[in-house]
């Protein structure tokens, strides 16, 4: 059994115990709710992605790309390799005429300071945009959950109406059955009296 089936089974197990007007939510109704919520969530998220792309400027995309690269193992590996090559190149004695930043590596410290000074605000810009997006998505999640709750309430009300209709039909049937029994009893009584008169 794959993960999706396990999640669906857990959903049905949880949904089957939901009570509304003393009526259990059936598996078919739970499946319907699950499908509607998934479709609604996909449509909303697609719309959010479209708005996000439309409202994203070139500078925003550049900031996101820099933040994405700056927080990756690729950046750490490349930057570490540059630092190692820089220090080795400027410490080897047989190429001393080619040294451009001898220990204590003042130029390297200056480059690192510039990198940190520019990289930190760019990463913060990207994080602020991502935070705003996450907040917007949390509102959407709330709307999806609210819609799912409304759908469950509608189904429960519908089931309750069906139960009331069944009870009314059953009461009507019992009333008609009682009338039929009374009519049969009356007919039997009349037949009995006719038999008695005939014998006399």
UniProtKB/TrEMBL annotation:
Pfam families: DUF1003. InterPro entries: DUF1003. The keyword RNA-binding does not apply. Residues 145-190 form a coiled coil. The chain crosses the membrane at residues 69-89, 105-125. Keywords: Coiled coil, Membrane, Transmembrane, Transmembrane helix. The lineage of its organism: Bacteria, Bacillati, Bacillota, Bacilli, Bacillales. This is DUF1003 domain-containing protein. It comes from the Bacteria. It comes from Paenibacillus anseongense.
């Amino acid at each position: 059994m794959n993960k999706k089936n396990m999640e669906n089974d857990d959903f049905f197990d949880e949904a089957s115990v939901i009570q509304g007007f003393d009526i259990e939510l059936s598996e078919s109704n739970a499946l319907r709710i699950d499908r509607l919520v998934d479709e609604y969530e996909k449509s909303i998220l697609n719309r959010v992605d479209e708005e996000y792309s439309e409202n994203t400027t070139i500078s925003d995309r550049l900031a996101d790309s820099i933040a994405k690269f700056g927080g990756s193992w690729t950046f750490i590996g490349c930057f570490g390799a540059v630092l190692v090559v820089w220090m080795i190149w400027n410490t080897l004695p047989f190429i001393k005429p080619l040294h451009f930043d001898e220990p204590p590596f003042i130029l390297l410290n200056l480059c690192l300071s510039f990198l940190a000074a520019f990289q930190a605000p760019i990463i913060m810009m990207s994080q602020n945009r991502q935070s705003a997006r996450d907040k917007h998505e949390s509102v959407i999640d709330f709307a999806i959950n609210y819609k799912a709750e409304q759908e469950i309430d509608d189904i429960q009300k519908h089931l309750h109406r069906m139960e009331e209709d069944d009870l009314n039909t059953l009461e009507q049937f019992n009333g008609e059955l009682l009338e039929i029994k009374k009519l049969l009893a009356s007919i039997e009584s009349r037949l009995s009296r006719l038999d008695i008169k005939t014998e006399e």
